[in-house]
Task: structure prediction
Amino acid sequence: MNRKTSENVEYTLRSLSSLMGERRRKQQDPDSAIASGEQSLIAATESFCSLQGSGGPGPGSSTYLGNSGDLERAARRQFQQNETPSFVYILSVFSALGGFLFGYDTGVVSGAMLLLKRQLSLDTLWQELLVSGTVGAAAVSALAGGALNGVFGRRAAILLASALFTAGSVVLSVAQNKETLLSGRVVVGLGIGIASMTVPVYIAEVSPPNLRGRLVTVNTLFITGGQFFASVVDGVFSYLPKDGWRYMLGLSAIPAIIQFLGFLFLPESPRWLIQKGQTQKARRILSQIRGNQTIDEEYDSIRNNIEEEEKEVGSAGPVISRMLTYPPTRRALIVGCGLQMFQQLSGINTIMYYSATILQMSGVEDDRLAIWLASVTAFTNFIFTLVGVWLVEKVGRRKLTLGSLAGTSVALIILALGFLLSAQVSPQISLKPTAPSDQNSSCTKYSSCDGCMLDPGCGFCYKMNKSDVVDSSCVPVNKASANEAAWGRCTNETKFKAEELFWAYNFCPTPYAWTALLGLILYLVFFAPGMGPMPWTVNSEIYPLWARSTGNACSSGINWIFNVLVSLTFLHTAEYLTYYGAFFLYAGFAGLGLIFIYGCLPETKGRKLEEIESLFENKLCTCGTLDSDEGRYIEYIRVKGSNYHLSDNDASDVE
Ligand SMILES: O[C@H]1[C@H](O)[C@@H](O)[C@H](O)[C@@H](O)[C@H]1O
Result:
């Protein structure tokens, strides 16, 4: 946003105070690492005193000379401790429980489905409804969450999300039929959508700039942590074939209740309060969150910004149309939505969903072992998100996202090559058994395992002679259990195993499985630190306050819409393009994403939320060239006469 000349006075004051502070720091305290704000506090006080000529102790007075060092030290100690108060961490962890629930509830369903489909005899349509019903509901509520956040505030939205999570989990754990299950999954989905768009915004708004990226990324750490925890719970309760799913789906009520109770006592975002004109309350909460640190500079900068924004953009008309007609927010919206779209188009959820099969291809035949190994995949995703938490404030958002997506693209190519090589050496089908008269025989038309595996209705029954596949056939899968065939030699698991027969559903025995496995591991190692968390982190930062809820609602909505699209189309894509074709396609999307991010994503590391809008003043796709600006840090703030004043109405304010 263009700062007007009326601010020159403020800016000059700021420069002056910084210069004085800098000189003083060099003279008195050359070694200590004092943040720039600290110097300006002291210097601003000096410059204010001398400018005012108030008769109080000034640079020329003996009292001043005698006590200035002590005063400075005392002021430093009292107001400028640079430690981050633990309250910020408490707020972040309680809000990130929303991320945990997002991860848990999207992750747990695959294990629950294995048990549910048998107990409630669910056909494919119902299985799909139960999985995508949640993601679809999340898309709707993420879009609607913008208005909710804007009108009722971040805290109310988080409370609502945790209430929905709790209600949904209770309904799921006591459900007696598939209709009730679907309604429970939809309620949980509504909670996920609201949490996914609100939590990053709330954390970004309460965090100090130097920690913001890290704390918002912790939310994604909680998402992947939730997914990992869900996979462990799936493993544990898979041993309870009757009611195991009730525990799997119901357990999320515990973190949801904890979050709800916590947020009854936790405060609203001070930025939202300032926007709503509740300035006294905002100031109180901001100083509570910042502990010993002085908040005047931050408070003023937020308030000035809101005033300026209102002047520049106006407040009439729906936020989304104002965002689209005002170039900086339009550009930010394109970047935010593009990031979320490319996150999903890189196929993360297909990879997570498909990991058990990739692992089976590499020789893990036991189903239960495959479930446990899938939790190793989820664990890898989680651990490498932790690497992202560590890197985000070191290398910045832009480099982290670019590096991550470049690695992800290479991993996708390796994965695709693994499937391609496997398809080329796919075992031939040597036996064509005749189907019993009342049974489906369409599977017997395939001539190699590859075609058979891509048909969701068929499986591959074979024997091994040393490392060669022999006596192989393609027969229909048993609809009640994918571990067995509907008819033929592989119908009874215990019996066919004793006869040294093998049953492969969804995969083919292949000597190149290691390539796919390598691709899978590399994918997670690269995706998790950058492309996983950064779309959420960047979106929480790039919109000005008036557009933040709406911007995040749109971009989260895009994330969920593409999530549904990619997951629902994966099997069909694989059928038409084969598996390697599907992964080459995702690699192509990742490549496009790389160009988009290289051209359009600016670095937001270390900047105040209020400054970030200025990064979108230039035409889109010039961000790469602006990268060199990283070190240039200009602060636009209004310096008040005293940083110590306690109320908005303090008569000593100089503006
Ligand atoms: O950032 C998250 C994370 O990467 C998850 O693992 C994935 O399942 C979500 O779709 C994504 O939004």
